[in-house]
């Protein structure tokens, strides 16, 4: 890793301890054996998977399974955005939904993200959902909050509403969850680099895995 990247990551390094602590709050009671789940990167990415960047010639693929209501995922979001900038077209960053049953509005947030993705606006909705997480997490009508975000982002609201109501949207989210479960995802955030699960304790765990992947 270059010195510039190390210095830049130092700015977000304070998130590392927070993320490490919060990971325990977003995983079910099943013991974590620490074993890394391995598999083909292609098995973790589909043609309609949400992407944080466009890097068709990337030599590495990072896939994050996340829950929009998960506090640890919210802490990771600005780190991911910074890594997208730092690694550029060398890494394809992919987001897959893994809403947890303990979070009452996570499923609705995932639907909002997918409805925005249908209009090419996944990334701005992704940022809005995470950055306002505390505002809607306990809302009794989160779907209305999310529709307001869609309006703020300039989306076609009729198309947004249609996507929210479309059973295909729920099926897409379920497909993400099924893929995560098959890959050994037990909680969020769970990150894979080129099909290998990253044991996430700090930001450097992610950058070490990315550096190894892009330099192979």
Features:
216 residues, alpha+beta, Glutaredoxin, 5-stranded mixed β-sheet, 51% helix, globular, disordered N terminus
Please summarize what this structure is.
The chain is an alpha+beta fold. It contains ten helices and five strands, in the order ααββαβααααααββα. Strands 1-3-2-4-5 form a five-stranded mixed beta sheet, sandwiched between helices.
Question: Could you characterize the architecture of this molecule?
Answer:
- By secondary structure, the chain is an alpha+beta fold.
- The protein has one domain (3-7, 17-25, 37-214): 3-Layer(aba) Sandwich (Glutaredoxin).
- Helices cover 51% and strands 10% of the residues.
- It has ten helices and five strands; from the N terminus they run H-H-E-E-H-E-H-H-H-H-H-H-E-E-H.
- It has helices at 3-12, 14-23, 71-87, 106-117, 122-131, 133-136, 142-152, 157-165, 167-182, 203-214, and strands at 50-51, 60-66, 91-97, 190-193, 196-197.
- Strands 1-3-2-4-5 form a five-stranded mixed β-sheet, sandwiched between helices.
- Strand 4 (190-193) and strand 5 form a beta hairpin.
- Helix 4 packs across helix 9.
């Amino acid at each position: 890793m270059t010195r510039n990247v190390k210095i830049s990551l130092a700015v977000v390094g304070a998130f590392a301890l927070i993320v490490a602590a919060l990971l325990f709050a977003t995983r079910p009671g099943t013991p974590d054996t620490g074993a890394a789940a391995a598999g083909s990167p292609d098995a973790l990415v589909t043609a309609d998977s949400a992407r944080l960047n466009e890097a068709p010639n990337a030599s590495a693929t990072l896939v994050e399974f996340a829950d929009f209501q998960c506090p640890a995922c919210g802490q990771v979001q600005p780190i991911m955005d910074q890594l997208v900038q730092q690694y550029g077209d060398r890494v394809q960053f992919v987001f897959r939904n893994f809403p947890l049953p303990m979070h009452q509005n996570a499923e609705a947030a995932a639907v909002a993200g997918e409805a925005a993705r249908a209009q090419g606006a996944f990334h701005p909705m992704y940022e809005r959902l995470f950055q306002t997480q505390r505002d809607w997490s306990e809302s009794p009508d989160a779907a209305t909050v999310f529709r307001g975000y869609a309006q703020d982002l300039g989306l076609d609201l009729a198309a947004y509403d249609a996507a929210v109501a479309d059973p295909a949207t729920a099926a897409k989210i379920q497909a993400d969850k099924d893929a995560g479960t098959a890959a050994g995802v037990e909680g969020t955030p769970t990150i894979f680099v080129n099909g290998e699960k990253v044991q996430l304790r700090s930001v450097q765990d992610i950058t070490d895995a990315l550096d190894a992947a892009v330099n192979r």
